[in-house]
């Protein structure tokens, strides 16, 4: 029997389990089907969507996986990540707004996983310590079982790494950090914007987390927010209380200095400077090394590890598409494992990767980047039996979303988009995001979403 190890029970790992469960010949218990074992170091599924108040180390002394914070609402239309075989309308029994809070998305993720009946395949509280080649030509996966307090090693024919790449902070240093007298943190450890009420905050970065954490701090009463980035201003029409400055150059006490010679007094510095692809549990020859980009290095079709095709990685791209792209990748990985997809030789795989990266390097703006990832996702869908979910419509919604953000960074969530699965138009959530202070599932569904 073919044995498959899946590392991580977040959205990518659950997509992989669901892909097998969706196939009559490969679902758990099917005669001749593969044996699936999913390892999850947390006590529950959901990955980053499984919120924890903890920062630094978790209850087992492991680095906290979660980068999720209270009051997070989706910063992209939910319709652009909707599972093709499980709509939001099916899950909630009605249409809901396009930008739900974390608890609503977590409930949606869990809903499909529970329907699939895959929970028994997950070994919770199991941290993967190493993945290496075995003497028998397979892969030995060694895990630490927190419950038993012991290490266990098992051999597998395939390994799917689905642990994500948004859990190991990239934290650049600026002169003066050593003596800064306020709060200094990476976005990975940001948990609650209320902590910064009536405080002056510097946010470093220009990513989604920078724009959203700046917005969160403003929403929950920060006295002022300064945004600083190497790549230049984010360019939004910020409300009073948020300003953008050139990159930080140094810190003196609580005074932060910028490249244009200006300075400001701040109580906190939040570094929204991205994450590292970090897989210390993988042996050197099996470890993915790539920058955060749309066309990852070392992954044929963005999935299959080019030096060793029995190892696969899911969700390792810089992302516009998320859940539905993870599904498309999981279906592709499943069909490679089941022998339905024949992989080309190493030279052709390497050529495909190089051509994809060259095409990405030629992209001129975010709109082209969206279409690039949409075409990639559609290509995977076309090679399997994953349901088609109208990527041209998803691309257009992403384009509209970008335009709405430029029009109003605090109001873009006050729009409704069209489900590519059901065709339903989402209602506009009330109250507007800027005035919706309760992010609970109960409050959201009870407020006319």
Task: Lay out the secondary structure.
Layout lengths: L2 E5 L3 H11 L13 E6 L47 H5 L9 H15 L5 E3 L1 E8 L5 E7 L4 E7 L1 E4 L21 E4 L13 E5 L3 H12 L4 E5 L13 E4 L2 E5 L2 E4 L4 E3 L2 E4 L27 E2 L3 E2 L5 E3 L9 H15 L8 H16 L4 H17 L8 H17 L33 H5 L4
Parallel strand pairs: 1-2, 1-7, 2-3, 7-18, 8-15, 9-10, 9-15, 10-11
Antiparallel strand pairs: 4-5, 5-6, 12-13, 13-14, 16-17
Helix pairs in contact: 1-3, 1-5, 5-7, 7-8
Keywords for this entry:
alpha/beta; FAD/NAD(P)-binding domain; 18 strands; 25% helix; 449 residues; 5-stranded parallel β-sheet; 2 domains; 9 helices
In brief, what are we looking at here?
With 449 residues, this protein is α/β, with parallel strands linked by helices. It has 9 helices and 18 strands. The longest helix is centred in the last third of the chain and has 17 residues, at 366-382.
Low-confidence stretches: none
Described by its quaternary structure, the protein is single chain
As for the number of domains, it is 2
Largest sheet: 5 strands, parallel
Find the count of extended strands (DSSP E, 2+ residues).
18
Residue fraction in strands? 15-25%
User: Structural class, please?
Assistant: alpha/beta
Count of DSSP helices?
9
Helix percentage range: 25-40%
Mean pLDDT over the full residue set? 95
Say what the CATH topology of the largest domain is: FAD/NAD(P)-binding domain
So what's the CATH class of the largest domain? Alpha Beta
Overview of the molecule:
Helix 1 (11-21) packs parallel to helix 3, helix 1 (11-21) crosses helix 5 (323-337) and helix 7 packs antiparallel against helix 8 (391-407). A hairpin with a 4-residue loop joins strand 5 and strand 6 (150-156). The protein is built from 9 helices and 18 strands. It starts with a strand and ends with a helix. By secondary structure, the chain is α/β, with parallel strands linked by helices. The strands form 5 sheets. It has a 5-stranded parallel sheet with strand order 3-2-1-7-18, covered by helices on one side. Helices cover 25% and strands 18% of the residues.
């Amino acid at each position: 029997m073919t044995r498959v190890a899946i590392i991580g029970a977040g959205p990518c790992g659950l997509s992989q389990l669901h892909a097998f469960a969706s196939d009559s010949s490969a679902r758990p218990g099917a005669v001749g089907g593969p044996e699936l074992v999913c390892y999850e170091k947390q006590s529950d599924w959901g990955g980053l969507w499984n919120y924890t108040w903890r920062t630094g180390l978790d209850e087992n002394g492991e680095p906290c996986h979660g980068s999720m914070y209270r009051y997070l609402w989706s910063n992209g239309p939910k319709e652009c990540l909707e599972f093709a075989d499980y709509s939001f309308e099916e899950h909630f029994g009605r249409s809901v707004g396009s930008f739900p809070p974390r608890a609503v998305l977590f409930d949606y993720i869990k809903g499909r996983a529970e329907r699939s009946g895959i929970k028994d395949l997950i070994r919770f509280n199991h941290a993967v310590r190493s993945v290496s080649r075995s003497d028998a030509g397979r892969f030995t996966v060694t895990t630490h079982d927190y419950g038993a307090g012991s290490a266990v090693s098992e051999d597998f024919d395939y390994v799917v790494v689905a642990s994500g790449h948004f859990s190991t902070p990239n934290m650049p240093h600026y002169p003066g950090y050593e003596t800064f007298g306020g709060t200094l943190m990476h976005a990975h450890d940001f948990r609650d914007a209320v902590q910064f009420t009536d405080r002056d905050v510097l946010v470093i970065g220009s990513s989604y987390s920078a724009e959203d954490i700046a917005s969160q701090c403003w929403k929950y009463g920060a006295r002022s927010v300064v945004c600083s980035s190497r790549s230049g201003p984010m360019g939004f029409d910020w409300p009073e209380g948020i300003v953008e400055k050139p990159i930080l150059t140094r810190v003196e006490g609580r005074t932060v200095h910028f490249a244009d010679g200006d300075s400001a007094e701040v109580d906190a510095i939040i570094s929204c400077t991205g994450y590292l692809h970090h897989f210390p549990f993988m042996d050197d020859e099996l470890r993915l090394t790539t920058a955060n980009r749309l066309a990852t290095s070392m992954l044929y079709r963005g999935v299959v590890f080019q030096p060793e095709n029995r190892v696969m990685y899911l969700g390792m791209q810089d992302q516009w598409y998320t859940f539905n792209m993870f599904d498309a990748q999981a279906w592709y990985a499943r069909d490679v494992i089941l022998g339905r997809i024949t992989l080309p030789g190493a030279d052709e795989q390497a050529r495909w990767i190089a051509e994809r990266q060259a095409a990405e390097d030629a992209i001129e703006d975010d709109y082209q980047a969206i279409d690039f990832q949409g075409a990639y996702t559609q290509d995977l869908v076309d090679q399997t039996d994953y349901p088609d979910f109208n990527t041209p419509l998803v691309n257009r919604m992403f384009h509209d979303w970008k335009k709405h953000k430029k029009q109003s960074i605090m109001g873009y969530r006050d729009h409704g988009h069209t489900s590519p699965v059901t065709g339903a138009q989402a209602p506009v959530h009330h109250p507007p995001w800027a005035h919706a202070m309760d992010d609970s599932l109960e409050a959201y569904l009870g407020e006319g979403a």
